[in-house]
Amino acid sequence: TLVAYFSASGQTAKLAKILAGVTGGDLFEIAPETAYTAADLDWNNAKSRSSVEMNDPKSRPAMAETPRLAGYDTVFVGFPIWWYQAPRIIETFLESYDFSGKTVIPFATSGGSGMGGEDVLRSACSKGTKWLPGKRLSSRESMASVQKWVESLGL
Fold it and tell me: Hey, how many other C-beta atoms are within 10 angstroms of the C-beta on 80?
């Protein structure tokens, strides 16, 4: 199991570490080639980097590192919710690899938004990818709560 995650503020990273502990999975941070600054993340500024990326469905921010996915059957993909969906770098990640034969399970953190845009993420994966429904979780989720969710997946 691999727990791949993007975390701009550290909240999704906290949850990813709990999930890796519960699953015994390896962690991989989906980091952008150029780190986001506070100004880049200002969603109130239409010209901020994150706003520009999210308003362009074709935007694919480059990743700093390429993970090795060989040997992983299950890949959890975590991210914060931006503009009611996953940040564009998640599409970069999913489009960059052949996930056929693998099970992909998204998870997200959000202050209030639900899991949006799963259809976009699913379509970013290669044919033959087994996709399980995602879940929005709190970054303060307990290990027991995460364990219960993982068990409900029937992996």
Answer: 24
